[in-house]
Amino acid sequence: xxxxxGCPHADNAALLARGAVAPVVLPGDVPGMAVLGHDALRExxxxxxxxxxxxxxxxxxxxxxxxxxxxxxxxxxxxxTTADGDDHRRLRSLVSKAxxxxxxxxxxxxxxxxxxxxxxxxxxAPAEHGGVADLRRHFAMPLPMGVICELLGVDARxxxxxxxxxxxxxxxxxxxxxxxxxxxxxxxVLGTVADTRAxxxxxxxxxxxxxxxxxxxxxxxxxxxIGTLLLMIVAGHETTLNLITNAVRALCAHRDQLDLVRAxxxxxxxxxxxxxxxxxxxxxxxxxxxxxxxxxxxxVIPKGTPVLAGYSAAGRDPAAHGPDAGRFxxxxxSGPRHLSLGHGAHYCLGAPLARMEGAIALERxxxxxxxxxxxxxxxxxxxxxxFVGNSVRxxxxxxxx
Length: 401
Hints:
Layout: H1 9-16, E1 21-26, E2 30-35, H2 38-45, E3 50-51, H3 58-61, H4 72-76, H5 85-96, H6 101-106, H7 108-124, E4 133-134, H8 135-140, H9 142-152, H10 159-170, H11 176-199, H12 205-215, H13 222-253, H14 255-262, H15 268-278, E5 284-290, E6 294-296, E7 299-301, E8 307-310, H16 311-315, H17 318-321, H18 351-368, E9 373-374, E10 396-398
Helix pairs in contact: 7-9, 7-18, 9-13, 10-11, 10-13, 11-12, 11-13, 13-15, 13-18, 15-18
């Protein structure tokens, strides 16, 4: 795997042509596997002999993974993404109350208000920069970050720093010292958030999690609380940030699709779903581990191997989505449901919120700025320095009313 990331689609296509499962070399020469084919990934994500707990990661258990390994947080953070069985159900049940259909629907007016306020700022930003604004910085990032931080009761003064540290966590090209420093600082910031909410509880998820821990000490440990907050911050804004960014890029490159949704031939929700399939916000997500030697699509994945879930590859798998899988088509009716928000017991709890945020963001953006377009060619956009997150670092646009 290239630690510098880049656009994954050409490499994905080459790998898929050879098979649905591929051996890979992770940073630090750690051997792993990637599941790329849609059907194989769907089976793998829900397989009873596949676990998330780090105790199943053979190389880590045997002390062969360095402390500063850039992907170590994905394996060792305490929370839903590294829990199995009863532990996973316990942690998920504590968080799920914040993501019921009713709670998510109640957030709509607030998301719409935040979107409009950010678009006011986006409209003003180009005045100092030759008519160009970074859509990612001024709109796509602060919208989901603001929403998830409101849910968690995180003060606005932490938002920028948490975004920077989240970027460090998902980066795959940083050195051991940088990785350790970023993780330590992120834990410190989240510890400050937890201490503040413990002293001044409110109507937010962090306060509710702390109350659950105090009512029953066995329900949520201190490390699990910080791990849960870390997961919520990173997953709660990075994926939606990439979703909005990638959808805008797709629509600017496919004006016929933008015209179609404006004419009522499709919905903004259709745009969100096709973007999730065609340019998944997450390219390769770490990690799952077979608890026995597992044969998948004719390939043996040895017990204890760290496996990447290849969401961006599965989304364009011709075997599942047809020979035009590489075409962006918001009216696509055939083919299976994409897997970009997961499958099985670890399906993304925040999926309804991410979908709603994406649809609201796109509708408000292109209503306010119908002539919006990229200010540089797509090929010149710098990509994420990660094979985990899939997007670009900046999105310079001309917000034309």
